[in-house]
Amino acid sequence: MKNNFANKLFKYKMQRHIFISLLLFVLTASCFAQKPWEFGGEFMKSFGKGFIGNIAGARYESFKNKNSFSIGLTYHFSGKNSYSSSKGIGMYVGLRHGFGNDINSSNPFFGIRALFSFENFDGKTSLNSLMVTPIAEAGYHFLFGKSLYTAPSVGWGYTIKITKEYNSLDEDIGGRFLPGISAGFRF
Predict the structure, then answer these.
(1) Cα-flanking dihedrals φ and ψ of residue 13, to 5°?
(2) What share of residues in the chain are helix, strand, coil (percent, to 5)?
(3) pTM to 2 decimals?
(4) What local confidence, expressed as pLDDT, does residue 101 receive?
(5) Predicted pLDDT at 38
(6) Plot region of 133 (φ>0 → left; ψ -120 to 50 → alpha; else → beta)
(7) Phi (first) and psi of residue 4, to 5 degrees
(8) Less packed terminus of the chain by CB within 10 Å, N or C?
């Protein structure tokens, strides 16, 4: 029994290290591949049936013509009104399409992203649950001068649990309304 737990813990730690290494490689490779690019912070609120969560993190976005690729590291924590208290880390990758003619001006956008999160439910288990949330989003990307941006958005997603090491009451899975805002610097 003890050996089984050690194997699961080792497997989880290896998955986390591979995940972080892959993220750093993709981020470094894309930083030098395309211009312009942006770096900043993002905050999203996650509203589901009986669940309110918060997602805060750092984001990187690179542009090519009207399209952009984004990647981010996130920290997840549940709201005070949620029955299951949780916290964890995550990452996302996403694509956006701008509807303007000039990527160096403010434009509306539509996009998709896949959010992967490892969340631990307080007092319930020592193992994190892997969850995936595909998200469709729309918003407006504002540029201020040549180096500042902000992008308010609204999204809808559906959270799916991948692993079975969870002990919440399942209000953390299902449909999500995700309003958010990001801001930072353009390079």
Answers:
(1) -65, -40
(2) 15, 60, 25
(3) 0.77
(4) 80
(5) 94
(6) beta
(7) -65, -45
(8) N
176: helix, strand or coil: strand
- Which contacts qualify for 19-25: CB closer than 8 Å, 24 or more apart? 19/91, 19/116, 23/71, 23/73, 23/91
- What one-character DSSP code corresponds to residue 165? -
Is the CATH number of domain 2-186 2.40.160.20? yes
Asked if the model's pLDDT at residue 10 lies above 70, the reply is no
What is the band of 35 on the pLDDT scale with cuts at 50, 70, 90? confident
Determine contact, residues 88/54, Cβ cutoff 8 Å. no
Q: Using alpha carbons, list the distances in angstroms from residue 127 to 31, 42, 68, 90, 121.
A: 33, 26, 35, 15, 9
Mean pLDDT across the stretch 162-187? 81
119, pLDDT greater than 90: no
Nearest in space to 165 (alpha carbons), one of 90, 86, 92, 93: 86
State how far the Cα of 157 lies from the Cα of 177, in Å rounded to an integer. Answer: 7
Distance (Å, whole) CA 97 – CA 181: 17
Annotated domain spans of the chain: 2-186
For residue 82, give the nearest of 113, 112, 111, 119 by alpha carbon.
119
For the record, the structure tokens of 151 come out as 């992008």
Please classify residue 2 by burial: count the beta carbons closer than 10 Å to its beta carbon, then call 0-12 exposed, 13-18 middle and 19+ buried.
exposed
